[in-house]
Design brief:
Elements (H helix, E strand, L loop, with lengths): L12 E5 L4 H12 L3 E6 L2 H12 L5 E5 L7 H12 L5 E4 L14 H27 L4 E6 L12 H23 L4 E8 L2 E2 L14 H14 L2 E2 H13 L4 E4 L1 H12 L4 H16 L1
C-alpha cells in the first residue's frame, strides 16, 4: 500500500460495533468530538441510546443499529441500514466481543461456537460486507480489535484466545493482501491489555462451574482491568488516525508482547508470575 497521510475523521462515517459501553462507547465519543459521523451497533439498546445521545450532542449525525452479531444475517442487515442512513463509510471498528470462562473440558461446544461467532465470525462477515464502501473512500481504515490474548494464551481462555488469535491472523493476512493490491484501505489491528470494562463481569460461564470459583475468578480479573476505557480509546484513535498496522493498548499489553517475543514457548510462567505480583499489590 502506498504511503498515506493521517486519516481525516472530519465529515467521514465510522461504524463501531460494541458501542453501548466500554471501549466502543469511548471511541464513539472521541470520534464524534473529531467531527466523525457514527453508525453505532450493539445488542444492548439501552446502552446504545445513551452513547448515541452523548455523541449526537457533539453536533454529528448518529444512527443506532440494535443487532445480535452472532447471527450471520446481521452483516447484510447492518450494511443495508448504514447505507440507507449514511451512504458511505470511512472507518469500520470491529470492537464487539464477549467472554467465556472455564477450562476447555468444562466449556460446552455450543458456548464455544457462540463466542467464536461474535468475536471472530462477525469480524469476518462485517469486513467482507463493508470493504466495498471502505474502498470507495479516498482513504479508509478497517480496525479489528483483538486482545493481548491474541498474543499470549493464558489457561482457562481457550475459546477467547482461539477467537482473538484468529482475528490477528485474519487481519494481518488481509492487510498484506490490500497492501499488495495497492488499496487505499488500511488495516489496524488492536491488542488491548487490561481495560476497565464490564466484559469479565458479563462473561458466560460453564453450567457446572461453582459459584465460588466464578466469583473468585471474576474478582481476580477485575483487579487486572485497570486502564480507563477513555484512555484506551484515545490510544486507539491515535493509531487509526496514523494508520498504524498494530496498536498495543496499555503498558501490560506492551510488556506481555515483549515477553512472548523473547520467550515464545515459556512466556506464560513469566507472565503468570508478573500477574501474581501485580494482583498482590492490589489486595
Amino acid at each position: 500500500m502506498p504511503a498515506h497521510r493521517d486519516l481525516d475523521f472530519r465529515g467521514g462515517v465510522a461504524v463501531i460495533t460494541g458501542a453501548a459501553s466500554g471501549i466502543g462507547a469511548a471511541l464513539a465519543l472521541q470520534l464524534a468530538t473529531r467531527g466523525c459521523h457514527l453508525a453505532l451497533v450493539d445488542v444492548n439498546d439501552a446502552g446504545l441510546q445513551v452513547t448515541a445521545a452523548q455523541a449526537g450532542a457533539r453536533g454529528i449525525t448518529v444512527s443506532r443499529h440494535v443487532l445480535d452479531l452472532a447471527q450471520p444475517e446481521s452483516a447484510a442487515e447492518l450494511l443495508a441500514a448504514v447505507n440507507a442512513a449514511h451512504g458511505r463509510v470511512r472507518v469500520l471498528v470491529n470492537n464487539a466481543g464477549v467472554a467465556l470462562g472455564g477450562n476447555f473440558e468444562q466449556v460446552a461446544a455450543a458456548d464455544f461456537d457462540w463466542l467464536m461467532s461474535i468475536n471472530f465470525g462477525a469480524v469476518v462477515r462485517l469486513s467482507r460486507a463493508f470493504l466495498p464502501l471502505l474502498t470507495a473512500e479516498p482513504a479508509a481504515q478497517l480496525v479489528n480489535v483483538s486482545s493481548i490474548f491474541g498474543i499470549i494464551a493464558p489457561p482457562g481462555q481457550t475459546a477467547y484466545c482461539a477467537a482473538k488469535f484468529a482475528v490477528r491472523g485474519f487481519s494481518e493476512s488481509l492487510r498484506h493482501e490490500l497492501e499488495t493490491a495497492g488499496s487505499t484501505v488500511g488495516v489496524t489491528l488492536v491488542h488491548p491489555g487490561g481495560v476497565r470494562t464490564a466484559i469479565a463481569e458479563n462473561s458466560r460461564a460453564p453450567q457446572d462451574a461453582s459459584q465460588a470459583d466464578l466469583a473468585q475468578a471474576k474478582a481476580a480479573w477485575r483487579r487486572m482491568l485497570v486502564l480507563p476505557a477513555e484512555d484506551a480509546a484515545a490510544r486507539i484513535v491515535r493509531g487509526i488516525e496514523r494508520r498504524e498496522p498494530r496498536v498495543l493498548v496499555g503498558k501490560d499489553a506492551v510488556r506481555a508482547a515483549w515477553v512472548q517475543r523473547l520467550f515464545p514457548v515459556g512466556y506464560w510462567k513469566l507472565v503468570a508470575r508478573d500477574i501474581a505480583r501485580r494482583m498482590a499489590k492490589t489486595n
